[in-house]
Structure formats: structure tokens, C-alpha cells
């Protein structure tokens, strides 16, 4: 799909496979529009003036297992004019130099250490945060909380100071908690705009497309599948709405047991990777791929287009849950509309009921973390 980035002026909707083929045969003909997102609904002078604008993008945690391949994909994105890479690891400037040799138009600079955070972030339009420790066998996302919560808090404090109007896309787990942490930090700094903060749940959608296509026995390609994945981004809080899959009927041959098994595989896909890597890491390459897709949608939105993606956002879709993943219409100001769930099957309705307590607990845990940190700082 990343070859679709190479020419942002070409609008036709094509599959990523066709885009790749066309780019290899004729790079100047590559299309830019993802088949998974709505085409532009904007028009007029604003869109015309913004379409070719390049954006400054930062990756925080750029030296890690997700950060490096994500940064490579972003270096290939023609919508990116400046790519800033940040990490505490001393190799980060070297990663920036390495990527700067790629023959694409954007510049790339690496920043290392806490003192470099503000210079890295200043002027950014989009900030993507994959920073933190990865999952290991036997770990849940909540096991990561105590380390990653503090990392996200520190990074978002930098965003509040250096680029408060940027789109902020959080990958760091547990996303169900780290996004509320980011929101509380931005609120404390007086710069919270709920439309511009996103938890990246695109990997759940990517996996769902792939697994649905496998079950459809060749009837549909993964890139042609449309399926909302709602709720959160951990285990049972991930709720794929298989009853709403398109093309309609591609899963009609599945029994209820098959639907339940497919749902469970989508929910547990992260663990599938962790176990397959036998202690050597978690889902890094597929996460980078999915994050680059979401970044492309954000940049299209910043350019004036209207794009629909699933994301974990500040929401009123489900009563009692202040954050929830559902389909969101992205535009120049961020999440311009958060869509409801639509009709659910009885199985999906039961799944929604079951995920509420866990998701609420994760949200509350994130909020409490920032509150406790503020209290400790006040009493110090």
C-alpha cells in the first residue's frame, strides 16, 4: 500500500495490489487513494491549496521494533515533507541518517534524549507514538501499564508544549489506558482538543480483513474487505462486527461457531504473534504497516479530504465509556464525526455488554494515573 503514497494528485480508487504493480511498471502512474477510506468530499480553494502541501511528522519511539519500519514507510509517503524521529536510544540520530539516504523528497532527522524532545516536536502536524516496552509471552497489556504510562505522559507533555494543535496517534499499549492518559495531560495543559487525539486500532481492522478473506475462501481479497472493529484494543474489548462485513454475504457459509472462532482469533491475534516469536518480540511489522495506513488517512484529512477509519477516540457512542473505538470521519480539524455502531447481531450485542466493565476499568486506570502523578507533584 505504501506505493500508493507516491503521487498524491492522482485520485482513482484502486486496490493496493494494482497500485504496487503500476508503480513497479510506471512509478509516475501510482495512485494515492486507499480503497478502505472514503474519497474526498471537500472541494474548492482550500482543497486545491492543501493537496500538495507537505506535512511534518514525528515518530516518538522511532528506534524500536515498530518505530523503525514505521519510519521507513513514512519516508516513502509523498505527503510527508519533514520526518522527525525521536527516541531515548542513542542510535536514533543514526536511524535518521540511514533513512535520509532514501531517494524520496522528504528530509529525515533523528533526535535522541530528553533534551531533544521539544526540538523534535516543534512545528509537527502529526505525532505518532509507538514508544514503550513490547509485550512478552505471558504478559497482558495491563502488565505494560506501569512503564508505558509514564513514557506516554512525558511525551504528551512535550506535545502540549511544542505542537498542541497536532494530530496525536497513540500506539503505545495499553491503548485503552494510554489514550485517556494523553487526554488528561493535554487537559492539564489547557490544550485538549478531543478531535485530534486517536488511539490507533487499525491493526485490529487489518487483521480482521485478512482473516475474513481467508474464511471467504478466495471470494474476496483482504484489500476489498470492509469491516468495523469497535470497542477497545485489548483482548475481549476488541469487537469485530462480522455481521456488517462487506462485501455482504462473503461469510454467509460460516456457522455461529465459526463466527465465534473468527472473533476470538481477531481478539487474540496479538498473542498469536507474541507466542510465535517465542519471546523474541510482539507484533511490530504488521503494527507498523497498520500505523502507516492510519498516518496516511490523517495526512489526507489534514489535506482537506474526508476519510473514514476506525479509531479509539473520546466518544459518547456507548453510555458510560468516555473512550471507544468506532468508525470516525476524519477531516482537517480531526475527528469531525464519530459514528454509532449500527445494528448488532445477538452475539455482538453480548460481546459489547461483556467488554464494558474491562474497558471502563482501563479508562479509569489511565485517568487515575495522571491524577495521582499530579498529586505527587503537588506534594513534592
Description:
With 380 residues, the chain is of the alpha/beta class. It contains twelve helices and eleven strands. It has helices at 16-25, 45-50, 67-75, 92-100, 117-121, 145-162, 175-188, 202-215, 256-267, 269-276, 285-302, 346-379; strands spanning 55-60, 80-87, 107-112, 126-129, 167-170, 197-199, 229-231, 238-240, 307-314, 323-331, 334-338. Strand 1 (55-60), helix 3 and strand 2 (80-87) form a beta-alpha-beta unit.
Unreliable stretches covering 5 or more consecutive residues: 1-50
Distance between the termini: 50 Å
Instruction: Please identify the oligomeric state.
Output: single chain
Q: How does the helix and strand content classify structurally?
A: alpha/beta
Kindly provide the radius of gyration, computed on alpha-carbon positions and rounded to a whole number of angstroms. Answer: 20 Å
Major beta-sheet overview: 6 strands, parallel
SSE series: HHEHEHEHEHEHEHEEHHHEEEH
Strand content: 15-25%
Biggest sheet: strand arrangement: 3-2-1-4-5-6
The best one-word shape is globular
Counted beta strands: 11
Q: Count the DSSP helices.
A: 12
Work out the helicity level: 40-55%
For the residues shown, what is the average pLDDT? 88
Keywords:
380 residues, six-stranded parallel beta sheet, three-stranded antiparallel beta sheet, 12 helices
Please describe the topology of this protein:
Elements: H1 16-25, H2 45-50, E1 55-60, H3 67-75, E2 80-87, H4 92-100, E3 107-112, H5 117-121, E4 126-129, H6 145-162, E5 167-170, H7 175-188, E6 197-199, H8 202-215, E7 229-231, E8 238-240, H9 256-267, H10 269-276, H11 285-302, E9 307-314, E10 323-331, E11 334-338, H12 346-379
Parallel strand pairs: 1-2, 1-4, 2-3, 4-5, 5-6
Antiparallel strand pairs: 7-8, 9-10, 10-11
Helix pairs in contact: 3-11, 6-7, 7-12, 8-9
Amino acid at each position: 500500500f505504501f506505493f500508493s503514497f507516491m503521487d498524491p494528485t492522482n485520485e482513482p480508487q484502486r486496490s493496493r495490489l494494482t497500485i504496487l504493480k503500476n508503480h513497479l511498471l510506471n512509478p509516475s502512474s501510482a495512485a494515492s487513494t486507499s480503497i478502505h477510506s472514503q474519497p474526498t468530499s471537500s472541494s474548492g480553494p482550500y482543497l486545491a491549496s492543501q493537496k500538495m502541501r507537505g506535512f511534518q511528522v514525528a515518530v516518538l519511539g522511532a528506534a524500536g521494533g515498530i518505530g523503525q519500519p514505521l519510519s521507513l514507510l513514512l519516508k516513502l509517503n509523498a505527503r510527508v515533507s519533514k520526518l522527525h524521529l525521536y527516541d531515548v536510544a542513542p542510535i536514533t540520530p543514526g536511524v535518521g541518517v540511514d533513512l535520509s539516504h532514501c531517494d524520496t523528497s522528504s528530509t529525515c532527522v533523528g533526535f535522541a534524549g530528553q533534551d531533544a524532545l521539544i526540538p523534535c516536536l516543534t512545528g509537527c502536524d502529526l505525532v505518532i507514538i509507538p514508544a514503550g516496552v513490547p509485550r512478552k509471552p505471558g504478559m497482558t497489556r495491563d502488565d505494560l501499564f506501569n512503564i508505558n504510562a509514564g513514557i506516554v505522559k512525558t511525551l504528551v507533555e512535550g506535545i502540549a508544549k511544542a505542537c498542541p494543535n497536532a494530530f496525536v496517534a497513540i500506539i503505545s499499549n495499553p491503548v485503552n489506558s494510554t489514550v485517556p492518559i494523553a487526554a488528561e495531560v493535554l487537559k492539564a495543559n489547557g490544550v485538549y482538543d478531543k478531535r485530534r487525539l486517536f488511539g490507533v486500532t487499525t491493526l485490529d481492522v487489518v487483521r480482521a480483513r485478512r482473516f475474513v478473506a481467508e474464511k471467504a475462501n478466495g471470494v474476496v481479497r483482504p484489500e476489498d474487505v470492509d469491516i468495523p472493529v469497535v470497542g477497545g484494543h485489548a483482548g475481549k474489548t476488541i469487537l469485530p462486527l462480522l455481521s456488517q462485513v462487506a462485501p455482504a454475504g462473503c461469510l454467509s457459509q460460516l456457522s455461529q461457531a465459526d463466527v465465534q472462532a473468527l472473533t476470538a482469533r481477531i481478539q487474540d491475534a496479538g498473542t498469536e504473534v507474541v507466542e510465535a516469536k517465542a519471546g523474541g518480540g510482539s507484533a511490530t511489522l504488521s503494527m507498523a504497516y497498520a500505523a502507516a495506513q492510519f498516518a496516511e488517512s490523517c495526512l489526507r484529512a489534514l489535506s482537506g479530504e474526508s476519510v473514514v477509519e476506525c479509531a479509539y477516540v473520546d466518544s459518547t457512542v456507548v453510555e458510560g465509556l468516555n473512550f471507544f473505538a468506532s468508525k470516525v470521519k476524519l477531516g482537517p480539524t480531526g475527528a469531525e464525526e464519530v459514528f454509532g455502531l449500527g445494528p448488532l447481531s445477538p452475539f455482538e450485542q453480548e460481546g459489547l455488554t461483556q467488554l464494558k466493565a474491562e474497558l471502563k476499568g482501563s479508562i479509569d486506570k489511565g485517568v487515575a494515573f495522571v491524577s495521582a502523578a499530579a498529586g505527587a507533584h503537588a506534594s513534592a
